[in-house]
Specification:
Strand order of the largest sheet: 3-2-1-4-6-5
Radius of gyration: 14 Å
Number of strands: 6
Distance between the termini: 11 Å
CATH class: Alpha Beta
Structural class: alpha/beta
Length: about 140
């Protein structure tokens, strides 16, 4: 199953090893889902994670970025302007459309339309339940 992960999920997972978002990183690493990214999404991961260099050990953020770079399905963005209430989130919808993702996982569901094409906009909890259901 393909998914796009909003930056806030990876950031949350690195900042709180006990939280639900932290479970998404090993799930990706173990192949429980395929991560879809565009260069714009990856660039945001790099930029935002490095903003938190004082709070996240560099080895953890670099390990995650290297994992994403090596293992994620890289796609060219699809046109998707005006679908999100926050223009900065368009890159995630664009990646999901281009990569035919089933899920877009975010903490900011309110910024996204309820449904776009066949993409389900879900929270961490909803996504983890889906991973468990399909395992």
């Amino acid at each position: 199953m393909r998914a796009v992960i909003d930056t806030n999920i990876f950031l949350s997972g690195l900042l709180n090893a006990e939280g639900g978002a932290a479970k998404i990183i090993p799930a990706f690493q173990e192949g429980e889902f395929d991560l879809v990214v565009t260069s714009e999404v990856f660039d945001e991961y790099v930029r935002v994670l490095h903003l938190f260099d004082n709070a996240i050990p560099a080895s953890q953020s670099e390990d995650l970025l290297e994992l994403v770079f090596k293992k994620a399905l890289k796609v060219r963005p699809a046109a998707s302007r005006g679908l999100c209430s926050d223009a900065d989130d368009e890159k995630f919808i664009s990646a999901a459309l281009a990569g035919q993702a089933i899920f877009l996982v975010t903490k900011n569901k309110k910024h996204f339309p309820r449904k776009v094409s066949s993409i389900k906009i879900v929270t961490v909890r909803e996504f983890l339940m889906e991973i468990e259901r399909t395992a």
